[in-house]
Design a protein that fits this description.
By secondary structure, the chain is of the alpha/beta class. It has a single domain, classed as Aldolase class I (TIM Barrel), CATH 3.20.20.70. It is 34% helix and 17% strand. It is built from 12 helices and 14 strands. Helix 8 links the parallel strand 10 and strand 11. Helix 8 packs parallel to helix 11. The longest helix is centred in the C-terminal third of the chain and has 17 residues. The protein binds iron/sulfur cluster.
């Protein structure tokens, strides 16, 4: 168990499947499989894990994207010497820890159809028994279903709305919600656990309780067992994109985020009571549908807000293949450990 200070004003514990025996050795030189860095967020409740990005930037161009304020607004570009650097890293990482593809870009941008870097990564990592969490908005992972189904793999797929018009505005280069639903269903039919990220909830855009209920009921009906949710946080660059697309809401957003809200960890948050109200809509629906639930970077970690074994979905990863490079790797790790 790990401790974090919550926005509810007290220290709480949050569950981590991985327990104390897992560790991230931050002193090793790693090139592409990096210890996950939540951009300095003190509210992040992710368990220890690695992040792996075959691409830099993201062609999906979601208006609310947080990554762009750190890496700029770029289309997905393959990392140079990516596969060589991957081969180097896999001998050095702790095989007990999950690898999240990806945390600040999408591993299945349209460019993946041409470069196949994510596919090649899976072909290397899966037979070695690595635990992999795929986080995506795209349905291109359907191409890789047969290999994904064999491995220690779970998927979290982002679905912020079922409204096609709204989705095409806020997530312009991603598949339609109905296609994402079909992809989730197919993955589950292939034995791959899938969680849903209803993230972010944006005031006045996708916060209608009836629509949220429909979304949660729909994903539950196709076999999803876990949902994680979070409210939209303002960074200067994502806010510019949001108000350019929705000028009629600018005044109300400014009031909520810049006057009534709070500034925390370099983000502007909604006022706590409003965050609780929006998140509660999702949590109540999840409870009714018997889904486990979590909130992401909200500081709300008590059972009322967070009953899943992890916030990021790593607890969904099944153990189908035992790690085969474990012993070799652990010897290596002990050479480097403090
Ligand atoms: S898919 Fe994720 S990383 Fe890509 S643009 Fe959208 S929010 Fe940003």
């Amino acid at each position: 168990m790990k401790s974090k200070q919550s926005a509810e004003g007290m220290w709480t514990t949050y569950p981590t499947e991985l327990g104390e025996e897992t560790s991230l050795n931050r002193t090793l030189t790693l090139y592409v499989i990096k210890p996950f860095n939540p951009w300095g967020s003190t509210l992040c409740t992710c368990p220890p894990k690695y992040s792996l990005h075959p691409y830099t930037g993201c062609s999906h161009r979601c208006l609310y994207c947080y990554a762009t304020s750190y890496i700029g607004l770029k289309y997905s570009t393959p990392k140079s010497n990516y596969l060589r650097r991957l081969q180097y890293d896999i001998k050095r990482v702790n095989p007990k820890l999950p690898i999240n593809m990806s945390t600040s870009s999408d591993p299945y941008p349209p460019e993946e159809l041409q470069y196949r870097l994510t596919r090649k990564t899976l072909e290397i990592l899966i037979p070695l028994g690595f635990k992999i969490l795929i986080t995506t908005k795209n349905t291109i992972f359907l191409r890789d279903l047969s290999i994904l189904a064999k491995g220690n793999v779970a998927i979290t797929l982002t679905l912020t709305t079922l409204d096609e018009n709204l989705a095409s505005k806020i997530e312009p280069n991603t598949p339609k919600p109905k296609d994402r639903l079909k992809a989730i269903e197919k993955a589950i039919q292939h034995g791959i656990p899938v969680g849903v990220r209803l993230d972010p909830i944006i005031p006045y855009l996708n916060d209608d309780p009836v629509e949220i209920r429909e979304l949660v009921d729909t994903v539950s009906s196709i076999g999803v067992k876990f949902i994680v949710t979070s409210t939209y946080k303002v960074r200067p660059d994502n806010f510019k994109r949001m108000i350019a697309a929705f000028p009629e809401i600018e005044y109300r957003w400014r009031r909520l985020y810049y006057i009534d809200g709070e500034y925390r960890d370099n983000y502007r948050y909604l006022p706590l009571n409003m965050r609780m109200k929006l998140l509660k809509i999702v949590i109540d629906c999840a409870r009714r549908s018997k889904l486990s639930y979590a909130t992401c970077r909200e500081g709300l970690t008590s059972k009322e807000w967070f009953n899943a074994k992890s916030c990021d979905g790593t607890h969904l990863i099944p153990l189908k293949i035992k790690p085969t490079i474990h012993k070799y790797n652990m010897r290596k790790l002990s050479q480097y450990s403090n």
